[in-house]
Amino acid sequence: TRSLLSVFEEDSGNLTEYTNQLLQTLQRVFGAQSEMGLATEQLSRQLLDYEKKNFALGKGDEEVITTLQSFAKTVGELNSLHSGLANQMADSMVFPLIQFREKDLTEISTLKEIFGIATDEHEAAMVKYSRLPKKKENEKLKADMMKEVAYTRRKQHQASLQYYCALNALQYRKRVAMLEPMLGYTQAQ
User: Fold this and answer.
1) Helix 106-130 × helix 139-188 angle, to 10°
2) Alpha helices, DSSP H, located in the chain
3) What 8-state DSSP symbol labels residue 1?
């Protein structure tokens, strides 16, 4: 069981590391898309500013002004598309992975801690029980220690079952968690 557990824990650790790197990459893509929206908005404003400049030699620039206004309108429309795409990426690409990390991977680490604490308590109770003197007059103390060992064993058993179940479930959830951001990216595009 411990050997198999170490394999699952190693896999869980690798998955955590991978999802951290994947999330950074997805956030970079989202950031680039957001920056593209901001840049096109700035470009649109800059094109409209040409008309407001009073160039000393700019008489007769009506064609240029009209053309730049037309470009500004088109770039403004592109800006709304880039902004919409950035919002879709945030909702369908970045958010699902963040949710997976916060819900599933955090649950694993929490259950691992609980399992470790329960194991430590059980081992401490076993050590205390094994150090009891073997004399007859300690029967009440021995019975109390046996109850404590049994309680910590049940507690450890329950924590281990919850932890093992979560590790098993993670193996199935990770398949969806890895594909969902890419489906979101594709849908947004």
Assistant:
1) 170
2) 2-52, 62-89, 95-100, 106-130, 139-188
3) -
One-letter amino acid at 24 equals Q
- Among 100, 85, 88, CA closest to 178: 100
**CA 149 to CA 129: how far, in whole Å?**
8
pTM given for the model: 0.77
Quote the radius of gyration of the chain (alpha carbons, Å): 31
H-helix or E-strand spanning residue 53? none
- Per the CB < 8 A criterion, the answer to whether 87 and 38 are in contact is no
Scanning 90-138, the segments in alpha helix (DSSP H) are: 95-100, 106-130
The dihedral sign for the CA sequence 157, 162, 167, 171? positive
DSSP, res 61:
-
CA dist., res. 83 & res. 163, Å (int) = 42
Using one digit for the tens of pLDDT, what is the confidence trace for 115-153? Answer: 999 999 999 999 988 888 777 667 778 888 889 999 999
Residue 131: which of 149, 117, 155 has the closest Cα? 149
| Nearest of 22, 52, 14, 5 to residue 179 by alpha carbon | 22
Give whole-number Cα distances, 61 to 45, 51, 76, 151, in Å.
18, 9, 22, 89
Residue type, 189: Q
